[in-house]
Amino acid sequence: MLKVSITKELNQFQLHSHFEVKHGITGIIGPSGCGKSVTLQCIAGLVTPDSGEIIVNEKPFFHAEKKLNIKTKNRNIGYVFQHYALFPHLTIWQNIAYGLKGISKHKKHKKIAAMLKKVQLTGYEKHYPNQLSGGQQQRVALARTLVTEPDILLLDEPFSALDHHVKHLLEEELLQIIKEHFTGVVLLVTHNMEEAYRLCDQLLLYHNGQVVQSGTKDEVFKHPKNISAATIIGCKNIILFDSLSQLDSGFSCTIAGTSLHVKEQPISGHTKAIGIHAENIQFVEKDPQQVNTFSYKVQEVVSGIHDSDVTIQAGGIIIKATIPNKQRPAVLTEKLLVRIPAEDLFLLDD
Amino acid sequence: MLKVSITKELNQFQLHSHFEVKHGITGIIGPSGCGKSVTLQCIAGLVTPDSGEIIVNEKPFFHAEKKLNIKTKNRNIGYVFQHYALFPHLTIWQNIAYGLKGISKHKKHKKIAAMLKKVQLTGYEKHYPNQLSGGQQQRVALARTLVTEPDILLLDEPFSALDHHVKHLLEEELLQIIKEHFTGVVLLVTHNMEEAYRLCDQLLLYHNGQVVQSGTKDEVFKHPKNISAATIIGCKNIILFDSLSQLDSGFSCTIAGTSLHVKEQPISGHTKAIGIHAENIQFVEKDPQQVNTFSYKVQEVVSGIHDSDVTIQAGGIIIKATIPNKQRPAVLTEKLLVRIPAEDLFLLDD
Amino acid sequence: QVEQEPQKELLVAAASDLTLAFTEVGALFEEETGVPITFSFGSTGQLADQIENGAPFDVFAAANIDFIDRLKEAELLFPDTQTTYAFGRIGVATLPNSTTSVETLDDLLNPEIKKIAIANPDHAPYGLAAKEALETAGIWDQVEEKLVYGRNISDTLSYIETGNAEAGIIALSLYQEGEVDFELIDADLHEPLEQSIAVINRTNEEELARMFIEFITGPIGKPIMESYGFIVPEETE
Amino acid sequence: MADINLFPLFLSLRVAVTATLLAIVIGIPLAYLLGKSNGKIADFFDSVLTLPIVLPPTVLGYYLLVLLGRQSAVGQFLENQFDMTIVFTPTGATIAALVVSIPFLIKSARSAFAGIDPSLIKAARVLGRSELSIFFSIYLPLAWRGIAAGITLAFARALGDFGATLMVAGSIPNETMTMPIAIYDALLAGNRELANILVLIMTSVSIIVLYILNRLEKKATESR
Amino acid sequence: MADINLFPLFLSLRVAVTATLLAIVIGIPLAYLLGKSNGKIADFFDSVLTLPIVLPPTVLGYYLLVLLGRQSAVGQFLENQFDMTIVFTPTGATIAALVVSIPFLIKSARSAFAGIDPSLIKAARVLGRSELSIFFSIYLPLAWRGIAAGITLAFARALGDFGATLMVAGSIPNETMTMPIAIYDALLAGNRELANILVLIMTSVSIIVLYILNRLEKKATESR
Ligand SMILES: Nc1ncnc2c1ncn2[C@@H]1O[C@H](COP(=O)(O)OP(=O)(O)OP(=O)(O)O)[C@@H](O)[C@H]1O
Ligand SMILES: Nc1ncnc2c1ncn2[C@@H]1O[C@H](COP(=O)(O)OP(=O)(O)OP(=O)(O)O)[C@@H](O)[C@H]1O
Ligand code: MOO
Ligand SMILES: [Mg+2]
Ligand SMILES: [Mg+2]
């Protein structure tokens, strides 16, 4: 269990971070410069918060009023830095060995060799960090931390420099290690939504130094609470509506004259927009019975490897849809109807 | 036009890089440690190749035999380093201004201010690099290079630390700048396939210090030439076959007793495997007429946000399919048939 | 502003044992002639080296006649100005109120006296004299163990004053009452410490320089020199 | 007390400041050039440059005197052509101070240059800057801490030099007598009190100057 | 030529090596502690530590003589308790050499420590190492270049010290007469030839030692 409730000012930047997470992997997602790394540094004791407290498994790490501040080295934390911070004067082997202590030489040797194998760097023991490629360096940083079996694991974009093949291997490795040895909290900063979804149990969405939403990954991805949250998780359709009215089974909202039906959801006074993931937009054969089904005009097509993003106009609504490339020709004829599933629409606060 | 034909030895690592690319954006993709950064450094004149030549727009930059080696500063190259290499003692403004010379103060000011706005760092002019977050630093590195309007642009994972929102903005910015000002060669190293596909015209696939395939992005993604190339572009299904026989309209290959029909393709003596993108696997209602259609058993399911990866066994073949989450329940009943489209199958050399 | 003639000035290089005496004599000389006089005190050997390399001194007062001879050979002096202006005297110095009083050289053998400071006999004339005296007294071999060498006579005094050497042999000219107890050594025990002075032939102030040499041995200089423990020879001419 | 001559103090400061400035102008480029080459020749040259520290100042002064004196080729040339003498002038004192102090600056600067992250130099080259401009815009500021330490050491050494200055410049009161010589003279004359006062003045002034140098170094590297 | 006494050379080397080792043991931790604090007090203290450079060695030697001499509290204590004297012994020479040389090491090391990337220290802390262990495993090796330069300077200064050593240790032939003193003596005795030969020996040995130090420094930082 990790409870963070701190504030910290850095130049013009203000961090007001309040959250509580249970053991398992928690993803931290948020735009560049929103305070993710600073939060991790506070938890590790490398940056001292201005006020508040940090508690890990009942044990307070930091308490501003009680002037309590456990030393970093006693926090038993594993931290993979965004910039790796490898020791330039130590070989890869020595870098990985650096945090290992109190175990026999033989055991140490075995652990490091095993870890090197896991990060696919066997043979590079005697190299120095500056003789490695960017991705190799990142793997050393990961290995150096994982080998120490810490109580809390703070991972600051640990896979950003890796090709997807190695990344997948290491993700699995990470999950394996966590499953086998690790009962504590893992915080994982990432910009990759798929990665977050694959690896994490819970998610924290950060924006401008504040947690804008937290919850299980499905909760967060299916129902982002507000516009910021929806933007952060990469929702491509965030549409401010003109009016919202309650129906029997949900709501109806009007956008530039077009009405959309939205399934039941909690609603606050701040609700301002609706959102839907581009992947959930469907194209169907003519069938005028269905709700939220419209004819459309295609405005723009951006192709990806397997999917394409199609921007269409349906009534007064402009919306993006992600469709498999195979479906693209059919969609481009504009002879289909677009269906905006009411159950996939979410209401967003300001 | 950029022609590279060099060799370089670094410790045990051997680079043998031979390629030629035209203007436009060329993506370099390859596993961690395969020599991408070293190649860029050779082009920039920061690492001297052991042999070979580098020619840009008819102008030789390097020629080992002629002992020709143009100085870096005279190559007019833009290089965004994987580790940014920002000047720690200069403010953000000064960092970006560093490469600008020979223009009036007023013009300089305008250019930098415009660039800061583009990378969304207005207000950070007076900060020093160590006061910025990882992603902000990366944007400064990008801005510092783009502002100089170089002849060749070498981008070493320039978006790796950015959230997808900012990344998209900068990708568009990059495309815009290139469209407007830039007629030269852009080399973009990336580990993100979607990014490569979105941004690049051509692709170079690297493996173990060698170019294993080059071509337009569609060519490369649709028809990777060999097993390495298929692995690099993230093809999840690479299956060694037992035998291959020529048919009227293509080939038939046998894997553990199951025969698959493959559409016409050039074939060499080294052809060893077939491959297919997981996204191209289809699930269809019962219809025993179609070729390459089988019943299957589900072995494993890994869910993503919108898609799931399903591993199935169809006859003797084990294959991964990526399907929309909506389709998952139907697939999991195992009442559908799997179709492995012959036109999407490619033959792979060793 | 009106005066075109450059300000007259006399620059005298003098051995460091002359520091006290010459400072006093110099003041009187200034009073008498109205010409400012500047002294540069230092080790004789060092000053000689400097003169050889063009130091702008007018007069050189050495503690050791050998160096004057050397400069004479190099034709840097007016030979006729060479004058022996004093003979140095040495004595045994001990700290006042020390338990071990030293009256004769033999007292230096007292085991209570652990260290004896003398100037370096290799290049300091007073050190050489001290060595000769100890040799003549026949105790050199016994005291050699206890000797420490100062760079010059003033360093030697420092060793005694700071109590690091129980005794030492210093120049009479450096002896200041109250600071140390002092017992003169018989002048017969060592070669005379002939101190020579001469005018350097590069001088622009030959007249004045000659005057200064005369002044030292003259009626005003002589008593002062004597008061600092120099034996001033009678005019021989 | 009232009649303590402060000329030596001001002379010393002037000499030390001039020597330090010269050391900066000569020493830093030299250190940079030495740093460019990693070879044995550079290391040998470096060792030779360290020599002035190893020789007793007086002896060093003697050789300088012989080299630059009015009998020497250099001395005669200067005297005949420009009517200039080096020895026994404040210029001589400055040169002596320069020679004894410059090795400290060179050594410190060389090691500071060597500590610079090479990727920053690469970045500067890619951005099209000339080596000279890189020297001023990257090398100097990034090595500043080490260079500043070297400057401080060189300045202190120049300020405190006694043996070499004495030999080359003589100890001519109100002309070439620097503070260390004045202190030594006072000691020589048995004037302990004066010596103590002069030492006190010297140390106070030095502490103030060194402290200011220290703070300046901080200032320049503060924001990083 | 055959009868040149090499004792001063060996004594000088012994004294310089011992003093340098002591300077390392005392100076590096001191520099580290000074570096920990960025405050004005540390800067003031730093300035005070630089003082031995500013004072003429002879004068410094005089004060050491007073401070450690046989009449002083320290001297008497040592003499009564351990029958040990500092002055006029090689120990005294070593202490004098230590005092004149240690400021160079402290200053160089402090600036080298200050140049270390703080994120590496953070990484080491996160990996659970104690400050002491971080000092040895990170600070020392990463500051090695600057420290090595400081060691070289300190060693050279210790080897070349004349004034302070002479004052504290006297120049007792075959006991405390170091090479610089021997050279000085030869020079003052007008024995130019001997002086030249001694200087030649001194410079050759110094160049060799300094060159080796230089190469060792390279060796240790080669692979990065
Ligand atoms: N040492 C510092 N001094 C001043 N401001 C700082 C400092 N470190 C970080 N900041 C500011 O704090 C904010 C948050 O930084 P942080 O590194 O936590 O961002 P982040 O969420 O990790 O972003 P990224 O995804 O780009 O790494 C940024 O706006 C940054 O400019
Ligand atoms: N200075 C060096 N000395 C020795 N070997 C080096 C050096 N630099 C790189 N290498 C080796 O060269 C190989 C290629 O490195 P390079 O940096 O080009 O990889 P990369 O393709 O950019 O990988 P990544 O995607 O991880 O950045 C690596 O195996 C690396 O270990
Ligand atoms: O070592 Mo000196 O000659 O007293 O400056
Ligand atoms: Mg960050
Ligand atoms: Mg790379």
Automatic annotation (TrEMBL), chains A, B:
Domain ABC transporter: 1-233
Classification via Pfam families: ABC_tran
Annotated catalysed reactions: a quaternary ammonium(out) + ATP + H2O = a quaternary ammonium(in) + ADP + phosphate + H(+)
InterPro entries: AAA+_ATPase, ABC_SmlMolc_Importer, ABC_transporter-like_ATP-bd, ABC_transporter-like_CS, P-loop_NTPase
EC number(s) reported in the record: 7.6.2.9
Signal peptide coordinates: none
UniProt GO MF annotations: ABC-type quaternary ammonium compound transporting activity; ATP binding; ATP hydrolysis activity
Keyword field: ATP-binding, Nucleotide-binding, Transport
Class in the EC hierarchy, top level: translocase
Complex and partners: The complex is composed of two ATP-binding proteins (OpuCA), two transmembrane proteins (OpuCB and OpuCD) and a solute-binding protein (OpuCC).
Name of the protein this chain belongs to: Carnitine transport ATP-binding protein OpuCA
Species for this entry: Halalkalibacter okhensis
Lineage: Bacteria, Bacillati, Bacillota, Bacilli, Bacillales
TrEMBL record, chains D, E:
GO CC annotations, alphabetized: plasma membrane
Gene3D superfamilies recorded: MetI-like
Record keyword Kinase present: no
Record field: transmembrane: 6-32, 44-65, 85-106, 132-156, 194-214
Keyword Transmembrane helix carried by entry: yes
Entry membrane topology: Multi-pass membrane protein
Keywords, comma-separated and alphabetical: Cell membrane, Membrane, Molybdenum, Transmembrane, Transmembrane helix, Transport
InterPro entries listed in its UniProt record: MetI-like, MetI-like_sf, ModB_ABC
Start and end residues of each ABC transmembrane type-1 domain: 9-213
Pfam family, one: BPD_transp_1
Signal peptide range: none
Chief localization: membrane
Gene Ontology molecular function, alphabetical: molybdate ion transmembrane transporter activity
Highest taxon listed in the record's lineage: Bacteria
Subcellular location: Cell membrane
Record-linked NCBIfam families: modB_ABC
Cited function: Part of the binding-protein-dependent transport system for molybdenum; probably responsible for the translocation of the substrate across the membrane.
Entries under PANTHER family matching the protein: MOLYBDENUM TRANSPORT SYSTEM PERMEASE PROTEIN MODB
Annotated family: Belongs to the binding-protein-dependent transport system permease family. CysTW subfamily.
Name of protein: Molybdenum transport system permease
